[in-house]
Amino acid sequence: MAVLNQLSSQEAITLENKYGAHNYHPLPVVLNRGEGVFVWDVEGKKYYDFLSAYSAVNQGHCHPKIVGAMVNQAQTLTLTSRAFYNDMLGKFEKFACEYFKFDKLLPMNTGAEAVETALKICRKWAYEVKSIDENEAEIIVCENNFHGRTTTIISFSNDPVARKNFGPYTKGFIKIEYNNLDALEENLKNNPNVAGFLVEPIQGEAGVYVPDEGYLTKAKALCEKYNVLFIADEVQTGIARTGKLLAVNHENVKPDILILGKAISGGVYPVSAVLANDPVMNVIKPGNHGSTFGGNPVAAAVAMAALEVVEDEQLADKALELGVLFRSELNAYIETSGIVNLVRGKGLLNAIVINDDEDSDTAWNICVALKENGLLAKPTHGNIIRFAPPLVMTKEELLDCVKIITTTLKQFES
Ligand SMILES: *Cc1c(COP(=O)(O)O)cnc(C)c1O
């Protein structure tokens, strides 16, 4: 069977192009191995991973403790469905509730499913606790949000590529400007049907937009004032990425509903979760919601191991320190640069803004050149490159990466 032989990069790309739906535009690199902060392509070239699978691999590629937990559990029991109990789910739920300090957890698989779950919980709470009239509940979201790809979630996206020709759209969402407290209060004050405010503590996909200091605290206070649930989508920002366990921890904000995905599994297996306290989570009753794979024993084992690694290896503190170093090194470069306007971010979730038109391909070309120089990153919306390496990186490795990045950028200075 030809497909079992080692393919060249070109052969692998040709196969995907011919047999796969074209729903992504990958950088032309074909990987077949990963370890820690490194990945290797099929020709054996080694790269620093500066995307970490959109922050799913915070613990580094193929972390032995996480992979070990998965292999071990996979040889014992993989799936029972929730028709029966299994001996791992309750352990994981207790572990995660204590870890994140919530009463209850609802397990799902992907980030988008967890967002959908949060929206459903919020709506049910609106009718059964807040007593909003049936079908009248509204949820406030932010412009330029990214919460996933389901029909409901893209209904409140404002990315035309993600939305166009996927209608009709789900109703019940109000879009306001991100980082704008007046807009939030305006919409809360005049609308008793608002049930929730769904927000990313830092907008990752949009280009790593960090809101003003105090935004999350004040937004949470407004939600409390108007009896509205503050729903934090920490699928990308959570699990130590921004230098705290959760990005809301920078402002000591406690969400009413917390959405986790990506790195809660260390990138080895799809795991996502929604956490809330009893007065909110208890609106969910048997039959209201579910998932065949959600809460399976492998997911439970993997997620516990992944969260233990975050604590054992103090990844939040590492991300905080390395992030300061990374931005100060890049800021020093930017002072002399015509091609980069600025670097922004928190912890190891950062981005540089390229000095060129939104629709030019400079950011893409820089990423291709970075790949040639041994570092993998990807443009986000507009002319922005996100830099999000695994958090297990050492200081020496980070400085090596800074050298690759600045050397590459120099090729684009005119
Ligand atoms: C990636 C992401 C999602 C969606 O997660 P999937 O696992 O791709 O469905 C949701 N919210 C945010 C903030 C994300 O970054």
Structural overview:
- Helices cover 37% and strands 17% of the residues.
- Helix 3 (64-74) runs antiparallel to helix 11 (297-312), helix 4 (89-100) packs parallel to helix 11 and helix 12 (315-334) packs parallel to helix 14 (395-410).
- It has 14 helices and 15 strands.
- It starts with 8 loop residues before the first helix and ends with a helix.
- The mean pLDDT is 97.
- Strand 1 and strand 2 form a beta hairpin.
- Bound molecules: pyridoxal-5'-phosphate.
- Pyridoxal-5'-phosphate binds next to helix 5.
Keywords:
37% helix; alpha/beta; Aspartate Aminotransferase, domain 2; 14 helices; binds pyridoxal-5'-phosphate; 414 residues; 15 strands; seven-stranded mixed beta sheet; 2 domains
Task: Provide a concise account of the structure shown.
This protein is α/β, with parallel strands linked by helices. Helices cover 37% and strands 17% of the residues. The longest helix is centred in the last third of the chain and has 20 residues, at 315-334.
Largest sheet: 7 strands, mixed
Overall helicity: 25-40%
Q: Flag low-confidence runs.
A: none
H/E topology pattern: HEEEHHHEHEHHEHEHEEEHHHEEHEEEH
- What's the shape? globular
The value of Rg in angstroms is 22 Å
- Distance from N terminus to C terminus (CA atoms, Å) equals 50 Å
CATH class of the largest domain: Alpha Beta
**Which range does the strand content fall in?**
15-25%
CATH superfamily of the largest domain: Type I PLP-dependent aspartate aminotransferase-like (Major domain)
CATH architecture title of the largest domain: 3-Layer(aba) Sandwich
Quaternary state of the chains:
single chain
Q: Please, how many domains?
A: 2
> Which molecules are bound in this entry?
pyridoxal-5'-phosphate
Secondary-structure-based class equals alpha/beta
Q: What topology, given as strand order, has the largest sheet?
A: 4-10-9-8-7-5-6
* SS elements, strand count: 15
